[in-house]
Amino acid sequence: MTLRKHLESIACFTGVNLKIHRISHSLTNSVYRLDSELKSWALRINNPYSAALGINRQKECDILMAIQNYSWSPNIVYIDNDLCLSKWIQGDRFNLEKDQNLERLIQLVKELHTVPCSQIQQHAAMDIRQEIRHLQAPSFYANQDWRQLLEQQFERYRLPANPVLCHFDLHPDNIIETEQSLNLLDWEYAALGDPLIDLAFISQGFSLDEPQWQQLIATFKPDEDELDLARCLAKITELLWHEQRFPEQSQLDNYQHWYDTWK
């Protein structure tokens, strides 16, 4: 469907005389800022190959409805399988180097991981092993050593008995900072799941240095071996996702570095 058709489908919310600006840093979807004379919205047009990237749009919708009363939730105007329209949040890209922002991030994640989950219990918890197997990455699976190491890590991993709500895609571009609050964007990978996997993705998404990482894990006090395994699996998920999304970009050196790090 063309942008024009999508705009026609949401005209009952936005009106028709809009200024349209495409947001350039979205890796998966097409995202636009829509401005009328009085209001602004964010329009996300979903990637048609979302399922291949492990995205369940109904689950995302249910999660967004479950968190609407939290200050850090996007304010959803309309959502379906093709698009998501939300109120525009005017603020700054989250900067971890600002005073107290790491602590603010930690407190935000703690709150996220304690959100009641009764409204989304119908969706199975995200098992990182299944997500990895879902990603098609021929250049990785062609290497027997890499493949065997991954299977060994799969055998060690256990999904927690009590999964929690996780975002699984937290990085500076997905947090908008305003004077009042932090606002979490892009919930398409969110799910019930393993909080250690969420922490591992946060470490990657923010490129945490060692002191920052130590401050993060001091708050959550995870088992060190389980956390180490979570970081291993989160890293290979990121690399496989990039091969799936951008097959023209070779990941061979990155796969080898992953293998050398975790073997």
UniProtKB/TrEMBL annotation:
Keywords per UniProt: Transferase
Family annotation (InterPro entries): Aminoglycoside_PTrfase, CcrZ_PhaseVar_Mediator, Kinase-like_dom_sf
Gene Ontology MF annotations: transferase activity
PANTHER family assigned to the protein according to its UniProt record, in alphabetical order: CELL CYCLE REGULATOR CCRZ, PHOSPHOTRANSFERASE YTMP-RELATED
Top-rank lineage group of the source organism: Bacteria
Protein name according to UniProt: Phosphotransferase
Residue ranges of domain Aminoglycoside phosphotransferase in the record: 20-216
